[in-house]
Amino acid sequence: MSMVPFLALLVMASAGCVAVAAIAVTVRAQMPAMRRLLAEARALSTDREFVVQITAQSLAAEPQLAVRQRRSPVRVIRPVPPAAVRPLRAAA
After folding, report:
1. What is the pLDDT of residues 24-52, one digit of tens each?
2. Cα–Cα distance between 50 and 56 in angstroms, integer?
3. Rounded Cα distance, 11 and 14, in Å
4. Which residue in 6, 72, 74, 91 has its CB near the most CB atoms, within 10 A?
5. Which residues of 21-32 are buried (b: 16+ CB within 10 A; e: fewer)?
6. One-character DSSP codes across 33-50
7. Model's pTM, two decimal places?
8. DSSP state, residue 82
C-alpha cells in the first residue's frame, strides 16, 4: 500500500472534521440570538392573541341606545326680487 492514498485519506478526514467543528462553533455562538428570536416570536404571538381578544369583544358589543338622526328645521329662503340685485363691480 502506498503512502499517498493514506495521506489523502487523512487530509480529507481532517477537512471533514474541521468543517463539522466550524458548524458546531457557529451554531453554539448563535444560540443566544436564536433564543432571543424565539422569545420575540412568542411575545408577538401573545400580543396578536391579545389584540384579537380586544377587537372581538369590542365588535361583539351591542350598542346600548339606538342612535336617531336629528332632523334640523328646513329654512325657506325667499327669492330676491330682481330690482334689489346690484351688478358686481370690478376691484379697483
Report:
1. 999 999 999 999 999 999 999 999 888 88
2. 10
3. 5
4. 6
5. eeeeeeeeeeee
6. HHHHHHHHHHHHHHHHHH
7. 0.42
8. G
